[in-house]
């Protein structure tokens, strides 16, 4: 039986070989195509002599593939007729397939035509089924990585509208507002305990301090969930930094919570979204890690395109987490937009939701501004542009002098963003006595307003991190305190009433913050104790003066007057060291002293200033103007103990930031696979 079957198979193969090897006349060929639709109308070339069964088998298969019918799918070998309920995909090489067949084929990394083996630039891709509510209507664009690229990225689709964000449960529902910690604390101090009744005071200082509570990890939703868009530079200059960049971004992914969402945009000569807004749990976290690990660097630098796409993701999302922010990383200048415009003029191409000054109407926009935390890598990045972008949007600018500290810098930023406990905080100051007038409220980049002829003022603080502390000086004009005939002189005089408002970290409920009344004594004669200034206010005066001086010297350095800048820094250093708070060994004053010395060092020569001085100074200005920690220069080891003088590595660093940086540093010390 077996020998008979084998003889029949050999006979069949012999007849097929004879049929394919024999030249045919046009008449015979026409007849053959009528009988066998798998043959084309073109006369095939003669097959060479077949010397082995394996060679014959491969060539026979190839012969049938090359002459496959345009009416049949070369993958499933069924009809390609229209109207049968299956989509048909026509490749750029003109071969047609069932869409589902070829999409499944491409999904496994095969980016060549199964028929002619030509390499495709545009490939079919099916939307992921695990992304709820994905918009399948309209056109989608697919990206095909180089076929032979190491760790080639999966094919990513990009819809016309970024409303494909993964939905998360509304954590604000089902939990009463009273069970959520939301009370910030407002404390006040006066510059002096008393002012003589017979004297006026033209610039009397009042310190208003805002403090937030710590995170309560015992509650299920103890902080505001966040939507983050990472906008990453993957231009050619980033090639040597990709390993550390991937590691740093993966650190962000691993340290976001299940209610947080992350999207990733990469930019080189153009920009593309490689990860939709996904929750950082389960498959979302796995997909994010996979996408990051497959990144590669090539091309130019188009910061504007990257930011525009990042903004669209936040503007077009269906669901909004309580907080949204963008993290921008770049090691160079914008080479695409910068070529046609003057320096920094290309920033006018950015949308007003991240660059409010681009609003042509001049009126304050009602749309939210998304803070952008910018990170400038190395010595060739455009620090002026990175600072302007963060400054306009309400973010911070970090100077990453060495790529080795990138993960720590990310950790510091994420430690803050994942600990927001109060939103849209506003301070309100009101005069409490006739003649007491509010002169100024220097608040850095926080918006402030004085109105009602100096009787009222507001300071918009925005979102606050857990255990964050911000200090604001309010300068008053205090009149003489005359005795009224027939009335007994009151020794205490109210100056101002301070109160506040905030939104709950999880909802839009506005909560009034209990404030304080600031009073001083108005005796006829002052005692020696009455003349001792408050050290807390003295140190804040120093902070404002040093920040203002550094900003002035930065402008002088830009105009080439480095000698004048050096002299001004030396003068301010001498003034700082003579103050009461500095001589008392105040930690903030020690940091300000070190900053003035380092700034002088980096402004010694034009070359040194261009190389690192500008970025160092701008990063410090960003940190001081928002009273928020930013990374600049080399990383410093964290000293143990919350009560030690060097409790934090950076000014304004919160305990949540410190904890996250410690986690990053411990991870860097651990052995890696």
TrEMBL record:
Domain annotation RING-type: ranges: 73-117
Occurrences of domain VWFA (ranges): 227-414
Biased composition range(s): Polar residues: 22-36
Keyword Metal-binding: yes
Keywords: Metal-binding, Zinc, Zinc-finger
PROSITE patterns: VWFA, ZF_RING_2
InterPro entries: CLCR (IPR051266), Vwaint_dom (IPR032838), VWF_A (IPR002035), Znf_RING (IPR001841)
UniProt keyword Cell wall biogenesis/degradation present: no
Region of interest (Disordered), ranges: 19-44, 627-646
Molecular function terms from GO: zinc ion binding
Name of the molecule in the record: Zinc finger family protein
């Amino acid at each position: 039986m077996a020998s008979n079957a084998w003889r029949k198979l050999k006979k069949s193969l012999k007849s097929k070989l004879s049929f394919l090897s024999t030249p045919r006349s046009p008449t015979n060929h026409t007849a053959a195509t009528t009988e066998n639709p798998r043959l084309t109308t073109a006369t095939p070339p003669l097959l060479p002599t077949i010397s082995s069964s394996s060679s014959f088998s491969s060539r026979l298969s190839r012969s049938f593939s090359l002459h496959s019918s345009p009416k049949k799918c070369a993958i499933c070998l069924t009809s390609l007729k229209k109207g049968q309920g299956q989509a048909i995909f026509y490749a750029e090489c003109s071969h047609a397939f069932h869409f589902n067949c070829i999409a499944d084929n491409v999904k496994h990394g095969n980016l060549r035509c199964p028929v002619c083996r030509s390499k495709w630039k545009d490939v079919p891709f099916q939307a992921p089924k695990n992304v709820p509510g994905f918009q399948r209507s309209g056109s989608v664009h697919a990206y095909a990585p180089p076929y032979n690229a190491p760790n080639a990225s999966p094919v990513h689709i990009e819809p016309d509208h970024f409303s494909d964000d993964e939905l998360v449960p509304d954590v604000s529902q089902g939990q009463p507002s009273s069970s959520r910690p939301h009370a910030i604390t407002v404390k006040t101090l006066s510059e002096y305990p008393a002012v003589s009744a017979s004297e006026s005071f033209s610039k009397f200082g009042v310190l208003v301090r805002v403090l937030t509570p710590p995170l309560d990890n015992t509650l299920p939703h103890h902080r505001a969930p966040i939507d983050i868009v990472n906008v990453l530079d993957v231009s050619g200059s980033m090639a040597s930094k990709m390993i550390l960049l991937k590691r740093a971004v993966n650190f962000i992914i691993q340290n976001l919570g299940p209610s947080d969402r992350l999207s990733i945009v990469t930019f080189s000569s153009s920009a593309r979204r490689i990860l939709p807004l996904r929750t950082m749990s389960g498959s979302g976290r796995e997909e994010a890690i996979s996408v990051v690990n497959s990144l590669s660097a090539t091309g130019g630098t188009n910061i504007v395109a990257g930011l525009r796409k990042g903004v669209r993701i936040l503007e077009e999302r269906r669901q909004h987490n309580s907080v949204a922010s963008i993290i921008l990383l770049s090691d160079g200048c914008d080479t695409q937009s910068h070529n046609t415009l003057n320096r920094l003029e290309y920033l006018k191409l950015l949308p007003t939701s991240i660059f409010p000054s681009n609003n042509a109407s001049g009126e304050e926009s009602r749309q939210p501004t998304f803070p952008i935390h910018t990170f400038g890598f190395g010595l060739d990045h455009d620090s002026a542009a990175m600072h302007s972008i963060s400054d306009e949007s309400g973010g911070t600018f970090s100077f990453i002098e060495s790529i080795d500290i990138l993960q720590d810098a990310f950790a510091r930023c994420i430690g803050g963003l994942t600990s927001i406990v109060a939103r849209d905080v506003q301070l309100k100051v009101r005069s409490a006595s006739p003649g007491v007038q509010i002169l100024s409220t220097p608040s850095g980049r926080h918006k402030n307003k004085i109105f009602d002829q100096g009787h009222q003022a507001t300071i918009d603080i925005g979102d606050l991190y857990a255990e964050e502390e911000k200090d604001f000086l309010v300068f008053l004009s205090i009149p003489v305190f005359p005795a009224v005939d027939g009335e007994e002189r009151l020794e205490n005089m109210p100056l101002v009433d301070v109160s506040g408002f905030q939104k709950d970290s999880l909802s839009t409920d506005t909560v009034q913050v209990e404030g304080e009344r600031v009073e001083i004594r108005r005796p006829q004669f002052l005692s020696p104790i009455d003349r001792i200034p408050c050290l807390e206010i003295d140190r804040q005066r120093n902070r404002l003066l040093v920040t203002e001086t550094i900003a002035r010297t930065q402008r002088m350095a830009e105009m080439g007057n480095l000698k004048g800048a050096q002299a001004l820094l030396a003068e301010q250093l001498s003034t700082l060291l003579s103050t009461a708070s500095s001589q008392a060994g105040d930690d903030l004053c020690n940091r300000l002293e070190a900053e003035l010395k380092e700034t002088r060092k980096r402004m010694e020569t034009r070359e040194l200033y261009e190389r690192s001085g500008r970025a160092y100074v701008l990063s410090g200005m960003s940190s001081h103007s928002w009273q928020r920690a930013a990374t600049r220069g080399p990383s410093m080891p964290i000293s143990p103990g919350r009560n030690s003088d060097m409790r934090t590595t950076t000014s304004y660093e919160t305990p949540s930031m410190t904890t996250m940086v410690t986690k990053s540093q411990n991870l860097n010390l651990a052995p890696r696979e």
